[in-house]
Amino acid sequence: GLRIMINKDESVEITWKNGETTLLPNLWLRDNCACDVCRNTQTTEKLFQLAQVDVNLMPETVDLIEDELHLLWPDGHRSVYDGSAIRALTIPQTTHLRLWSSEFRPQQFDYGKFTHNDSIAVDAIENFLSTGTILLTNAPTTESLEYLTPRLGPLRETVFGRIHNVVVDSTGYNVASTNLELPPHTDLSSYSWPPSAQALHMLVNETEHGESIIVDGFAVATQFRNAHPNWFDRLCYTPVPFRIFDDNNETFATQPIIQLDTGGQIAGVRYSNQTMQPMNPARTGLTEFYRAYHEFSTRITSDQAKAIFRLEGGQILLVAGHRVLHARKAFSANANRHLQDAYFEHDNIRNHLTVIQRR
C-alpha cells in the first residue's frame, strides 16, 4: 500500500505502490483541501484563501487510512485527500501530437455525419487535436460555416469581418485577394493572440491550378530545434513585428516566431512573410536572428514540408491556427474560384469534445 513520511522541509512524502515518491508541500496540501468549507460544493471553486494561514504551516497529525491521506491542521481544520486523485495529478495530461510532412493528407470526415453524429465528431476532433488538421467532405456549396458552431464553438470575429470571402478582388487588402501564389503562413500574425483555429470552405473551384498547401509548423520547428538549437532559441525570444491593415482597420503585434509553453514544448508558430514588418536594424543579435530566420524559412517553404492537394467545392479544411501553415498555388485571374473562411478557438473545440464525451 501507500506509505507516508512527514519531512522537516515543509512537506509530506508519499510513497506509491510502485516505489515512486512524491513530495507534497504543506501549503499545497492546505490550499487543495476539497472539503465543503474550503470549496464550493456546487461549483467546486476554491473558497479557501492561502493568505489565511502561516507560510510555515505544518500539520499536527498525518494519517493514512485506506489510501486516503488525513491531516489535522493547527487551527483544528481537518483535510482528507484521495490518494488516487493525487497520483493522477502527477501524470502529465498531454495530447499525442502526430507530426507530418509532404506525404501527409488530412483525414476526411463526412460533413453531415460530423455535424449530426457524436461518435464521428469525437473521432474527427481527436484527429484534429493530434494532427492539427482535418477535411470535411460533402459540405454544402453555399455559405454554411455558421453551422459548424455546435461542434467547434462560436466563430472568432476580427476587425476584418466574421466570414471572409476569398475571391480575386482588385480592391482587396492582401495577397489572398489576388490570383498570385500565396506562400505558407499563419493568419492574423498581427494579433497579440491570433485565432487558434481556422475553417477554409471551398464553395467553387473551377480552375486547373490553385492547389492548396499545408505545412506542419510543429514538425518543421521540431526538426529545426534538433538541427540548430541555438538558432531555435533565437526565434523563441526575438520579438518580430507584424502588421495587417486596410482603409478602416489597423492591427499590429510584436511577438516571437516560435512560442514555447511553460514546459519548454513548442506551443505555437507565428509565420507570415507577407505581413512581417522591418525590425530595428540596431537591435543586438539581428544578424544571427536573420541566419536563424533564413534557415527556418528555407525549411518551412521546402517541398519536403508541403502537403499539396486540391480542395474541391463542398470541402472544408480545418487547421490549427497556431500550428498549421496554409498556402495555395497561383491560378488564372479569370478562374471561378470562391473560398470562404472563418476563425474558431482551439479551447472551444477541446471543450466541445469534452462535452460530447460526457453525454
Automatic annotation (TrEMBL):
<dbReference type="Pfam" id="PF02668">
    <property type="entry name" value="TauD"/>
</dbReference>
<dbReference type="GO" id="GO:0046872">
    <property type="term" value="F:metal ion binding"/>
</dbReference>
<comment type="similarity">
    <text>Belongs to the gamma-BBH/TMLD family.</text>
</comment>
<dbReference type="InterPro" id="IPR042098">
    <property type="entry name" value="TauD-like_sf"/>
</dbReference>
<feature type="domain" description="Gamma-butyrobetaine hydroxylase-like N-terminal">
    <location>
        <begin position="7"/>
        <end position="81"/>
    </location>
</feature>
<keyword id="KW-0223">Dioxygenase</keyword>
<keyword id="KW-0560">Oxidoreductase</keyword>
<keyword id="KW-0479">Metal-binding</keyword>
<dbReference type="InterPro" id="IPR038492">
    <property type="entry name" value="GBBH-like_N_sf"/>
</dbReference>
<protein>
    <recommendedName>
        <fullName>Gamma-butyrobetaine hydroxylase</fullName>
    </recommendedName>
</protein>
<dbReference type="Pfam" id="PF06155">
    <property type="entry name" value="GBBH-like_N"/>
</dbReference>
<dbReference type="GO" id="GO:0016706">
    <property type="term" value="F:2-oxoglutarate-dependent dioxygenase activity"/>
</dbReference>
<dbReference type="GO" id="GO:0005739">
    <property type="term" value="C:mitochondrion"/>
</dbReference>
<feature type="domain" description="TauD/TfdA-like">
    <location>
        <begin position="104"/>
        <end position="343"/>
    </location>
</feature>
<dbReference type="InterPro" id="IPR003819">
    <property type="entry name" value="TauD/TfdA-like"/>
</dbReference>
<keyword id="KW-0408">Iron</keyword>
<dbReference type="GO" id="GO:0045329">
    <property type="term" value="P:carnitine biosynthetic process"/>
</dbReference>
<dbReference type="InterPro" id="IPR050411">
    <property type="entry name" value="AlphaKG_dependent_hydroxylases"/>
</dbReference>
<dbReference type="InterPro" id="IPR010376">
    <property type="entry name" value="GBBH-like_N"/>
</dbReference>
